[in-house]
Amino acid sequence: MAAQLAHQARDAVAERYVPALIRGEIVAAIAVTEPSAGSDAARLAARVRPVPGGWRLSGEKIAITHATSAAVALVYARRHGSQGHHGISCFAVDLDAEGVTRSPMPGMGALPLCWGGLAFDEVFVPAGNLVGTEGRGFAGAMHHFDFSRPALGLLCLGAAQASLDEAVSWAKQREAFGRPIAAFQGVSFPLAEHATQMEAARWLCYRALWLRAAGQPHTALAAMCKWWPPQVAKEAIETAWVTHGSLGYSAESPLQQRYRDVASYLVADGTAAIQKRIIATSLLGKVATR
Asked: What is the CATH number of the domain that holds 249?
């Protein structure tokens, strides 16, 4: 978010928000998802119309990270009369502006993300708050996803790694039938399998981010990072709490919290089906989407 504002926002807007974002004084939101448009961002219905000095923004966004805590949001909306991905622009919108309504939408997990909805009722957006090129916002949204998807994959793997480390420690301490349970292959082999899959998933994410830093195509790899690593992480955390037995299932255990947190990323930034569609299209071309 800070990078997008720093690179694409007008100087006055970047100077207003970017230093505060870097210092951690404020957080920001990216508002794409709507009641009738999620992964298919080209169908978004939020509208802007030009007025003297800027635009008037109307529409609704749902399932937005930091919706109830952000100071500013990058809101994607289309110019009235446009269709598909044409006419979509990105705007930096002050979430304390008149006409903005926030509504909490707590999920099963990831509660610190302050998930919720944003409604815009003829909100005035100054002309200088356009981010990037007018009508080219769709490309900006897709470019953001190519970064956030491997980043979310790594986030999930971090939670899984902590869970696996705890399971390994527990397996060495917990005894059954006179031996640590780590001595039983039924316990040790699943941990070994998950460690292997997590290592492979981690390097997949690293490769996608390396390609991005090198300015090379990475959309398909980013999609792989959003489909597979969260699934790997969820299954690893599940094995970790099963290794702990009933203690792992306890509400006092961090394992159940991590399990619910990671589950949210099976949907965020596009489901597995959407990611596979992107990957298939990169392999087979448009024939794969028919």
From this structure: 1.20.140.10
